[in-house]
Amino acid sequence: MDQIIIHVDMDAFYASVEVRDNPALKGKPLIIGSLPSERGVVATCSYEARRYGVHSAMNIKEAYRRCPKGVYMHPNFEKYRAVSAQLHEIWDSYATASEAIALDEAYLDVTERAKTFDGAREIARAIKRRTLEELGLSCSVGLAYSKTAAKTASEEKKPDGYFEIPDRQAFVELMIDRDVRALYTVGAKTAEKLYSAGIRTVRDIQEKQDTVVALLGKQGQWLTQLAYGIDNRKVEPYLPQNAKSISRELTFQQDVDNDALLMDVLFLLALCVEHRAKRYKLYGRGVSLKITFADMKSITRSKATATCENAMDIYREAVGLLGQVEKRPIRLIGTGIYNLSTEGGRQLSFDDLSKDIEQDRADELKAQFRLLEERYHLDFEGHLEQIYRGETLHRTAEYMRKHFPT
Q1: For this structure, is 398 an active site residue?
Q2: Which residue in 105, 274, 309, 317 is the catalytic one?
Q3: CATH of the structural domain 13-76, one choice from 1.10.10.10, 3.40.50.790, 3.40.50.720, 3.40.1170.60
């Protein structure tokens, strides 16, 4: 066997952490995300809530319509990140390579450690046992010969499940008569294209390979391979340097058509983008702007630039892009950098403004902070570490929206 791969996926991660920490929530339909009175979506929900048809990414209003007696909570990302670090420490101890997909999900290459499929089975059981005993949380584990098969296996017996797919033949036998949506990477739009050509099952993909490739190009070639269980991808540890872009966005609780307020929020978003880029020593050579209008139409604008070294560079370019956008009420705004590189000028540091950064740039940044503080009577510069966190950023933006001077 060339590879032995384990896929670990936590069961309703955010909700499970909250139930663990507050047993009074056990057995209740728990929805983590926005509150019913707010705009937003479901981040995740307990399995009790899923029985009402609630699911991740569902509009929170629809979730409330389906489950009015549910318990609704904002997510606590700081807590979830801390638990995630504990999870990955356990999982990574069994692997020669670990590929984190999210806070609560990872591929593990256990080929060398396990030696055999029997040895890998013992590792999988140990991962489930330790995750429960040490952190009080259940996970679903898939053991297989490839990444796609391992992910498929982990979904097979959720929640708290375990399933094995030892080889290509076992994968094909399991999948052959299932809907095309059961294959990794096939989403709703891709499925509709396949359905329109009379391709509804994995067997249909095998029998109509030329049609699939004609419809979907390279993705079609990939799907025809998956239909036969072929997936030779390696487990590759995630490196921040491999990211294509870094961005931050937020949704207003009420539509905004005030350009000055939008620019103030863009400044905070630019600070957040810079903070994340600085952590990984990354630089951008392009700035993007994302807008969702009140009617839910979304647009993106971008501009190639010289190296973006700091928040003020990002902010200025984003404001310039905003000036090119049609003036009408905005629901969501975001900005980011792309064409990332580890090479570039020095990133802005708030600890050494007077030492290494050009004084005019330091003065410009300070002036922007003073403007915000005078306008909203908040200490922005003194609370940057909190603002970098998503929940505080959203609360701050909402305060700014409600208290913008008229």
Answers
A1: no
A2: 105
A3: 3.40.1170.60
